[in-house]
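Minutes, project huddle
Topic: does the predicted pose make sense with oxa(dethia)-CoA bound?
PN asked that the exact inputs be recorded in the minutes so nobody has to dig through chat later. Recorded below.
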Amino acid sequence: MYASLKSIGGYAPKNILSNADLEKMVDTTDEWIEKRTGIKERRIASKDEDTSDLGVKAALLAIERAGIDKDEIDLIICATLSPDYLCMPSTACVIAGKLDIQNVMAFDISAACSGFVYMLSMAKAFIESGAKKNILLIGAEKISSVVDYTDRGTCILFGDGAGAAIIGVTEDKNEAIIDIHASADGRYGDLLITPGCGSKYPCSQETLDKKLNFIKMSGNDVYKIAVKTLTSDVIDILESNNLSVSQIDHFIPHQANFRIIEAVRAKLDFPVEKTVLTVAKYGNTSAASIPMAINDAYEEGRIKKGDLMLLDTFGGGFTWASALVRFGGN
Ligand code: UT7
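Predicted holo structure (tokens), as shared on screen:
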């Protein structure tokens, strides 16, 4: 028995925040943003759209495309750094409620931008052990709720959105999730952090006045470590599976910054046409970034059953992960 990525879904909110809009909010320019990040615009959820609502829309597509009944789902995991509620209920439970799925195990994970690939590794273990049969994974972010729109170092980067996948069982190795490497190094936690409103700095007027409830990032430090780690991550997983770049059908990296992706792509010699890029239109959607990118490529007709995808991600923690996944859907 193998675990298989049976389907993908995605959702991008309708409201667009362009670089021109940001020029009116902070001291920046369209030219600077595009040159340094490749981002042209990002999507922003409306006031009455919660992270769970974005997740539900992506999940409904994934469930429909998997051709299963929602009540066949026996595990729901949601990765997010912008949950509906800080502590409880989990966004996965809220999503289960909104999908009207009962008697299901449901919980969130916290692995920042690496969330989707981290969840994939958990789903693989649950399926291969025989514990679960149909797992719904959701990466959903209303990051606009934790972004400081007076901080030009972060507000130009992030956007809202969601991606979802159904992980099921297969006996066919050509439709299986082959391997996943996931890791972390907590020494770098302070470089990308939302310090406030946890137990260390509980929510108070002082916490809010100091804007500790928003994402803080040492951008350039993160940038350098991201390029290095994303590159070595790919080399490791390819080598340990005796695969070469030419055997990969789709390179799907975390969409944080075009320059980061380009540096990794060029170093590893991945052809541009095999590299999936969504950063220009969505910005960095954290845990939703990889499944949204898979979904876009799928909807464009680029991804077919059996295709070999290489996922590569990096985020706060620091966390990072790579995965070799054969697409098991139709
Ligand atoms: O998803 C998790 C992983 N996250 C990432 O991978 C993000 C990694 N970091 C980055 O993408 C980049 O570091 C940024 C896009 C955030 C910044 O680009 P950079 O090339 O590293 O710029 P920098 O931070 O070294 O700043 C260069 C200059 C500074 O001015 P001075 O000190 O040289 O005068 C900044 O103040 O650019 C300035 N700057 C800006 N200027 C216009 C910083 N942000 C902006 C801005 N508009 N939005």
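Observations noted during the meeting:
- Residues 28, 32, 36-37, 113, 152-153, 156, 219-220, 222-223, 226, 256-257, 260, 284, 314-315 surround oxa(dethia)-CoA (CB under 6 Å).
- The chain has a mean pLDDT of 98.
No decisions taken; revisit at the next huddle.
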